[in-house]
Amino acid sequence: LGDTGTVYIGNRGDSSVCAVDEKTLARGACAKLDQSPDGVAYVAKTKEVWVTTPRDKAIRVLDGTTLAQKARIEFEGGPEGFAADNARGRFYTNLEDKDVTLAIDLATHKTLATWKPACGEDGPHGLRLADAEGILLVACTGKLVSLDVAHDGATLGSLDAGEGIDDFDYSSADHRVYVGAAKAARLTVATLDAHGGLTQIASVPTKAGARNGVVSRDGRVYLANSKDSEIVVVGP
Q1: Cα atoms found within 13 Å of the Cα of residue 178, Cβ hemisphere only
Q2: What 3-state class would DSSP assign to 104?
Q3: What is the average pLDDT score of the chain?
């Protein structure tokens, strides 16, 4: 979601990225990439859209208005997950096949730091940033870890949340994390403290395959279950 009420959507079917008005749902500019898009993130500081394209081990940087490609950043592995850090001028992504998390300079596109979340053979997946605290949350297959972005990615905390984690959600308003585990068939809710500690406050049974939860303003969590082509809803 951009700062002007624009939603940016990647289409793996035709390798396009399109801008859609949040209120009218009218489609604006579209761009076609030469690789399938995965993660799509708007970066307010530079007014750009950063798109991960793991198949060619790259990130595409697009103009936030025209969606014209401005740059292509290459890596030694496939980028997975994303978090824009406008305050510190960074973009975070993982190299899933290398088990590392990268901090990239928004202006120069250079990798500033390489951190090791120790996710193991399956590597790290989703990312969320607690901006004010400078804490980066990294999803591993069976756990969540918190890293200190101001102190060379030092590990601050860890939380087991069941097997089958891909992406997750974080609510900055109440400092709560919502993690859906597809294999464990459960949703874990935890609090994040100012020092990066993670404390579980709830564990809710869901369904096998339910993951990638998104929390709404009223506290409901919506999890995608591609196995049964459905959305699993957990009440607040």
Answers
A1: 23
A2: strand
A3: 95
